[in-house]
Amino acid sequence: MNLALVLAVCQFSKREGGAWRAVQLLCSMMIAMSAVILLSAAYRMTLYVQVYGLSFKRFLTYWGMVMLVIFLLAAALKVWKQDFGFFKILLTVSIVGWLALNVCNVDRVVAEYNVVLYQRQETALLDMDYMVNSLSYDALDALEKVTFPRRAQNAKMEYAIRDRRDQAREEASHWQTWSLSAWLASK
Predict the structure, then answer these.
(1) What is the Cα 109 distance to its own chain's centre?
(2) What sign results for the dihedral spanned by CA atoms 147, 152, 156, 162?
(3) Span 44-77, pLDDT tens digits
(4) The dihedral of CA 91, 95, 98, 104: what is its sign?
(5) What is the CA radius of gyration of the chain?
(6) What's 135's DSSP letter?
(7) What does DSSP assign to residue 185?
(8) How many Cα neighbours within 13 Å face the side chain of 161?
(9) For the stretch 135-163, what's the b/e string if a residue is b when 16 or more beta carbons lie within 10 angstroms of its beta carbon?
(10) Which distant-in-sequence residues (6+ apart) come within 8 Å of 105 by Cβ?
(11) Which spans in 13-55 are helix H?
């Protein structure tokens, strides 16, 4: 909302005189306050991730925050440079950011982060049900590195991973359900 307000004010204001300088200053303050709010949100999200681990939605939240930082920087340039093409940058950054998100193997990143966090004993929690059943087959390699203090937990984990690999083999064996993730997990 702040970004839309800044862009609307820049679009409909006359770019001359002392009034424009006041608009530039107020828009810059609005962008700075938005950046402070974004920084606070990122800090709180980081605290939350350190305690409860990373999830797909939390990863998307970080991605969205990075995109907003770039948009705020572009808005600041729009305020101070008259001929700056904000919407060209917006479109380009949006497409590149979306492609980067799709190329990045989010489930693997989530699983590896949580496993490392658990192995360093920085968290006592490891939501195995979420990681085994909700993430894709790409998370299985990271999950195989987990060892629990109790044998029963290790056996349960091995069984769950074996079951998921069997599901992957089943999916990879039919052309209607084939996916690269399932094929790699079945090997």
Answers:
(1) 10
(2) positive
(3) 999 999 888 899 999 999 999 999 999 999 999 9
(4) negative
(5) 23
(6) S
(7) H
(8) 18
(9) bbbbbbebbeebeeeeeeeeeebeebbee
(10) 138
(11) 17-52
**C-alpha–C-alpha distance, residues 5 and 19, integer Å:** 17
Q: Which helix (H) or strand (E) holds 100?
A: helix 86-103
- Most distant CA pair in the chain: distance in Å? 75
Please name which of 102, 125, 161 lies closest in space to residue 50, comparing C-alpha atoms: 125
Which amino acid type is present at position 120?
A: R
CB 145 within 8 A of CB 163: no
User: Which residue bears the tokens 């044998």?
Assistant: 151
Q: How far is CA 59 from the centre of its chain?
A: 3
Tokens of 37: 């709010």
pLDDT in tens, 122-161: 777 788 888 888 888 998 988 888 888 788 888 888 888 8
